[in-house]
Known about the structure:
Layout: H1 7-18, E1 29-31, E2 37-41, E3 59-66, E4 73-78, E5 89-100, E6 103-107, H2 110-117, H3 121-132, E7 141-146, H4 174-190, E8 196-201, H5 227-244, E9 250-254, H6 276-293, E10 300-307, H7 313-319, H8 322-325, E11 330-334, H9 343-353, E12 358-363, H10 380-394, E13 398-405, E14 408-409, E15 425-428, E16 433-436, H11 438-447, E17 455-461, E18 467-473, E19 479-485, E20 491-497, E21 501-507, E22 511-517
Parallel strand pairs: 5-20, 6-7, 6-13, 7-8, 8-9, 9-10, 10-11, 11-12, 12-13, 14-15
Antiparallel strand pairs: 1-2, 2-16, 3-4, 3-22, 5-17, 15-16, 17-18, 18-19, 19-22, 20-21
Helix pairs in contact: 2-4, 3-4, 5-6, 6-7, 10-11
Amino acid sequence: MALSLPSAVALVFLTAQVTHSAESNKCVGRNFGHDSVVCECNSTYCDSVGSVTLPPLGQYSSYLSSMAGSRLEPGRGQVQVNSTGAGLRLTVVPYQKYQKIRGFGGAMTDAAAINILSLSAGAQDQLLRQYFSSEGIGYSVVRVPMASCDFSTRLYTYADTPGDYNLDNFTLAPEDVNMKIPLLQRAQALSPRPLSLLASAWSAPAWMKTNDALIGKGSLKGQPGGKEHKTWAQYYIRFLEEYAKYNLTFWALTTGNEPSAGQMTNYSFQALGFTPEEQRDWVALDLGPALHASSYPHTHILILDDNRLLLPHWAKVVLNDIHAGRYIHGVAVHWYMDSLVPAEMSLGVTHHLYPDYYLFGTEACAGWNPLDRGVKLGSWDRAEQYAHDIMEDLNHYVVGWTDWNLALDQTGGPNWVKNFVDSPVIVDTKRDVFYKQPTFYSMAHFSKFLWEGSQRVGVSASRKTDLEYSAFIRPDGSVVLIILNRSSSVILFEVWDPAVGYITSTAPAHSLLTLAWNTH
Length: 520
């Protein structure tokens, strides 16, 4: 629960307690005047749920986060043989099997790297551990922008020499070599499993583009199959080759961040416009063959990398083409404007039309909306927005969900166009501390418990309810049920797993609850 002691006193008190009990590794709560608290961490202390092992058959574990101040608060209970007759029953239906999980994570932007490196060595280590270590929340995906984006301090690409069609002058930026790469190597060293790195480019070099600029409305010169399109495909290969020199290999790359943005007049930051037809032909004629012929033929290609409201149309145009489709593995979606189109009409229809291609969430952040902009320290409402969207995506066949910047400063930057947003971790360099936002714990309820290979299964409710829920069977056979209560009432319910029995539980008002149990 949140501590009302002044944080400095609380910190001293907690640090003294740590020697006595691992269980006292609790959130040092600070209230900044929003509807909940942040958890403050420094170079020597950070709350952590630790490595999670489930109790033996017949018992279950629970983890609760809430507006009231709980943060992954652990609990245990007995599985009952008989129903208690609770009004609401959630029945796990293990034979209804859906998609398998790939993973969860965030983006190592220039801004994220700058903020992480602004902390002392000890605090940097704490922050990376929180995300990537087995005591942390189990991030396994890291999105890496190829060259600059709005969350950079300057405009650049890796091939800014005009007319360099052979990419003779291709070179990684200081931001890569001095900041992003060392941090990715440290994250990988902390992670118990290989990280799934995902590359996305924002813009081609200006000289390859119709508007001769990195920003605004512009696309590649010429046609797919032409020299600009071929060079742009080779640029991707060169990026993979340069990162491989640092032992960093990529699971996937996207066809480019938000291609619809580069079709907008007066767009204020880096973009490269593609229509779905142009993207289809570029993959079929240029990117697909180039990747196939390179040293990285197993790197996945994800199309779209834009808002899901462009589905299913975008997928139909690209995936109906046999020449493009054979190089593509999945469809990448962003969360902005998700409320404008039902998930079933976009994600659901796309999955049913193209079940062989997976759906993957590649970007989301709070604080992007002009009406609710920037950092809000302690906003539980934003935690609920995250949990709702992740749950809705998972319930519509998405196999993973990637947050945007891993860390930002208190203004929500740096960002060269002042496009300030929020992040699950906010860094306060002056005090050498970082704050874990409620959204950090939203991510944790999924990333910590849904290991790669976990499979979504059916759940049915005995009556209409305000609860949102999703169930999974993990590779070891254990079951994870995640429950979101966005209402202002406490909701009592029971879970029935035919394999083990009944679990009686409570979802407090404005809470997120993860239940987990063994089945053998």
